[in-house]
Amino acid sequence: MISSKNTFTVVILLLFLIALFPFSSEGLSLERQKELDLKKGKTVQEAKPTVPSQTNTFQSLQNQINGLQKFFFQNLSYSKNPNAIHQNIIFSNYDTEYTPCVSKRDKKGNIVPCSKTEILQRAFIPGEVIVKFKKNSGINSETKAKEYLTSKASQKTTANSASLVSINNVKKVSKKQVVNDVKGLNRIYKVKVNENADILRAVNEYNKDSNIEYAEPNFIAQTFFTPNDPRFSEQWAHQKTQAEQGWNIQKGSLNVIIAILDTGVDYNHEDLSANIWRNVDEIANNGVDDDNNGFIDDVRGYDFVNIDPGLCDPSEDCANEDNDPMDFHGHGTHASGIAGAYSNNNVGVAGACHWCNIMPIRAGWSDPNGGGSLMMDDIIQGIIYATDNGADVISMSFGGGESQAQKDALDYAYSRGVVLIAAAGNSGSNYKFYPAGYDNVIAVSATDSNDYPAWFTNYGSWVDVAAPGVEILSTLPNNQYASWSGTSMATPYVAGLAGLILSKNQSLTNEQVRNVLRTGVDLPNSDKYIGTGRINVLKTLQINSVPIANLDSSLDDKILSGSGIINIIGTASGSNFKNYTLEYGQGIYPTTWNLINSGTGSVLSSNLGTFNSLSVSDGVYSLRLKARDSLGGESIDKAVISIDNLKITKPIYRDLINPGDLIEIRGDVFANPTSYSVEYYSDSLGSWSTLGITKTHPTFPRADALLATWNTSAITQPGFVFIKIIVNTAFGTFTEQTTIYADPTLKQGWPKKIEGDRINYPTGGLNYYMRAGPFDTLVKDLNNDGNKEIIFASKGTNIRLHVLDVNGNYRNGWPIELPNSRPDVWGSLGPVIGNIDADAESEIIIGNFIENKLYAFNYDGSMASGFPVILPYKNINGYDYGVNSGSLNLADINNDGKNEIIVFAEEPGYLAVLNNQGVLFPGNPHFFNMNIGSNIKNGVSLGNFDADSDLEIVVSYSNYNLETKTGSAYIDVLNKDGSHVSGWPVVKQDYIFNSPAIGDVDGDGNTEIVVGYRDGSGVYVFDKTGQVKSGWPRLTGYYFTSSPALLDINNDGRLEIVISEYSWGSGNTYVLNYDGTTHSGWPQYKQMSDYWYAVDFRSPFTTQDGSSKELIFETAGEKLYGWDKNGNSPPSFPRQTYGYGMAESGAYVGDIDNDGLLEIVTSGQHETPQGTPLPPMTAVIIWETSITKGNKIEWPQFRHDGQHTGLYGHDPQSPTCTDTDGGKSYSVQGTVTTTNSSGTLTYQDTCITSNNLKEYYCNANKTASSENYYCAYGCSYGKCNPNPNPPPPCYIDPKTKRKVCNNQFSASVFESVQNQLDDIQGVLKSILLYLSPR
Fold this sequence. Notes:
Elements: H1 4-20, H2 30-41, H3 61-66, E1 75-76, E2 84-87, H4 116-119, E3 124-133, H5 142-155, E4 167-172, E5 188-193, H6 199-206, E6 212-227, H7 236-240, H8 243-247, E7 257-262, E8 302-303, H9 331-340, E9 357-362, E10 364-366, E11 372-375, H10 376-388, E12 393-396, H11 404-415, E13 419-423, E14 442-447, E15 465-468, E16 472-476, E17 480-484, H12 487-504, H13 510-519, E18 521-522, E19 534-535, H14 537-541, E20 548-551, E21 558-560, E22 565-573, E23 577-586, E24 594-599, E25 603-612, E26 619-629, E27 634-643, E28 646-650, E29 655-657, E30 662-669, E31 675-682, E32 688-689, E33 693-695, E34 702-711, E35 719-729, E36 732-742, E37 752-755, E38 777-780, E39 789-794, E40 798-805, E41 816-819, E42 828-834, E43 843-848, E44 853-857, E45 869-870, E46 874-876, E47 879-881, E48 885-891, E49 900-907, E50 910-914, E51 926-927, E52 940-943, E53 952-961, E54 966-974, E55 986-988, E56 997-999, E57 1008-1012, E58 1019-1022, E59 1039-1040, E60 1045-1047, E61 1056-1062, E62 1066-1072, E63 1084-1087, E64 1101-1104, E65 1110-1116, E66 1119-1124, ...
Parallel strand pairs: 1-6, 7-9, 7-12, 8-9, 12-13, 13-14, 14-15, 21-27, 29-36
Antiparallel strand pairs: 2-6, 3-5, 3-6, 4-5, 6-11, 10-11, 16-17, 18-19, 20-22, 22-25, 23-24, 23-26, 26-27, 28-30, 30-34, 31-32, 31-35, 33-34, 35-36, 37-71, 38-39, 39-40, 40-41, 42-43, 43-44, 44-45, 46-47, 48-49, 49-50, 50-51, 52-53, 53-54, 54-55, 56-57, 57-58, 59-61, 60-61, 61-62, 62-63, 64-65, ...
Helix pairs in contact: 1-9, 9-12, 10-11, 12-13
């Protein structure tokens, strides 16, 4: 979809070009020549009949503020990439307590304005407010408005006031005085204030003012790109819609003007210039407003873009509004070609309306990253301009949330008879987007060449019609052509068809045009409602008489639960009206219809008939209204409703249960049943059963009634279980069914389910339920009592930190909540676990970037001494920015026996090392050159890369655009003071979406870095100087999002790499040897579910079983996979989590309950369906296994350990190692004892054959190592046997008088003794000499 500003710009530019270079009419058809002559002589556009306004009454000021929760960013649904779709921009969710940017208060508490990059990602322009004064306020000029608001600002000085230090400028949104201003458009002003003003609080205060009708922020829009389907044949849409046959009836008329409200139009384009609207009453380039419309030299439309040039691509014209609506982006030009490229000229493509005029209106621009953006005040100006200058149709390929100012402008245009057409959006959901969602706007969805809904298109009963929107070939600037996809492409196609309808009969009202479009359709191949059908040009142009059939919009996607008999409101009327019928049918596009009511009298917004929702079974139903007139005309409208009188509310759909648990079965029963029953089916039983079910017989009707309790012990095998409720009523028997998964391998008492918060998130009025988290689950014996705890964070209205024992009970003092003013974002760093205060217990460290604070909690939930601490800020353009995303690590990086805290602030871009009191190390923080708003999903790892004993910090981050393939990925190695280690950083043109793994991969005694790149560069191994190791990279062309894990799979002293590739719906897990070759038995394929389409972003985790057999586990989607080193799955793998997706959760493997067997701990997030009162759910899941605990757990969890070091062999607990024989003593049987965070292990020297000894000893890492030693005289009792016949060590050969020794050890001893004897003999000789007589 494209911005309205861009469309306006395009029109203006085209008009300007025509004025400078009038095109020749030679070679045109006679019909075309006549129309051109008529157009040149036309001076005034005929006024259209005024239709009654459908404007809703304005809401109160507070409702306006509350309405901000419904805003989305405006969407441009397009793509410059032929393999991408143009996706809608979504307004972010902001409430009255939210400041213009996340965590944007400086150290003094002052609000910090957004950076230029952040502005493009937020919902509104800082420092600007749209204000509409009341009619009786007496404020009717810019001067009076500024005086009034300045006076108000001077009176309001508290933090809860309008928070405006000064009013810098006040301008009317409409530069031209609107005639017959029934909507009060002349009373709307754009107010510029200081940039650090709290706009939302200012809006709140303004809306309380008795002279102000409403106030709202000046919203901003953006474009985003997403991948597209394969390209179809060129201009397939014309064949699909029977356009060629329709053009035999009508090709278009220059009397019909289609305004393209967008990024502008290349009015010089070879296939557009002939159809560009020209303001014939304006003389080009004379500097005079010749037609007195308020705009000078607007010969081809107008450019309303007026934005800070820093927010705009340098090649664009953004600084000032002007009369040149040239398109710098391409979206508006593409839309213009679809609607009205000049046809039958042997050039380029054919537009839907061959000879309609295209009015360029530029309201959008290209941002520095290549996306499209537009502001609401420019959209409003574009709507008014198009209306006042004779546009018959306005095409709007953008969408978002409700804006009262935008609605006022649209109501004004509608009241002047303009046909308003807008894109439904590209989020692939039933969220209502605006302006398409307004009653007076025709909403357009998109279909592909097979009449299936485009995978990206929005849908719902609020959509009017569908049109081709996949791989639509059209014009681009500079005489180029390309195929783009999106509802942005479908919208101008409908606009072009509306132009054909008006070319045939320009006396039709805009409401009649809507009815014609909705009636002349073909049914799509769709299980989603995307309108009455896909447009058919021939069928549409064959309609000659148009009655009105409108169902009230309150019916759109209405859910009827216990509603009983309802009135169906609508309109059936028109000239020569004859009758109407109201029907219903089951499904989205029924083939069988049942009569509800009929009538011969006109009905105007009143009751058309009554419908008993209790008389039919639950499901989706369509309502159809047909209105007919005496001339044979027929019009239709449809609405889709859902009937939900019987619903199972517990257990929730796709739940996970542990057989043997006692389960409540609850449900909504809104009928008055005479009887009911509850049954279940599982493969282990083989039939429907009531075994273990006890009904409770509540009174009906009732919501969430306890219908039965269920003892699930009869289920003995893992598998799906179906639960069914059967209700007998006077209208018949109705059933409801749900599906759960039962797994007897779950640990008793698990899963532990924790409810999140039910949050209204911007969805056009529908309820959306935020994920409850968690993103990581940690296991640790926090207080060293021998019992482990499970630690995780979840989110909602607040961030929650949980500590549970192994039975699922909360430890005393938990959970703890941290403030979170942005429930739509994660908002936390960590947690990580480690000892920071040298006591006997571990602390839990977590950061809250909403507050820009770092917290440390003791085992009992109390705050650690000195915490919380304020995290560092980064000054950008004079403002201090706090942490907006990042990661936490703990490690003793300076080898002083105390853990340090490492904070990597991915946004705004710094690394900070803090001591255990939260004080920054010297040289910290270290700032990176990273873009604000970069989509970075990385973390920090640690390793030793030089000759000292300190750990160095490995940071990976990216400034990379996946769509344009521009930017870089960085791997940097830093010392604790922020200085670079020699050889780093390493820079590649790619994207890193994971954290590196650190270890001695090739066994050469040096540390290596392992990383997988996201966009095709493959897997790399770097040495400590940043050089690529021999044999690498591997698997180029694949996409890696998960962090790698390291293990010695074959015990050869060299490490293997486990890493997973990313793919849509599936992926492979690879095991790579140290030299880059693929290990035997790998890769292993994983199929994702529809609910979790990506391989997890976490890392695999590994262990050995009691037989020293290497095992590898990985969470992926809704399954836990397990393999041995050869890729074979152990019994009962993969395990199911069913509805609890683990895509971002990671897992832990270890013996958590000290039973000698391994458990696996993970967590999942359950997405609660829309339209239900249920909150989102987090489940912490623990599986039992029959695998005995082995000697080592090489990579037990995500990023290796609870401190998230990513370092192979790192033990958060200082290890110890003792050897009773003192080392490699082969003649003595010794015992080695090691202790670390995994527990205490013992190893005893053992004879493995009659002559081979396995000798254990302590290595430099304080862990056990072993070697096989050959015993020459045999091995017994864990030691080498001595020589049974040892020769004398040394003797004097009688012949040579020389010493002869049997071994070097004996020789050295003999020589030592002999030397001592010689010394004694010398001393004696000296004494004798002294005593002898002289």
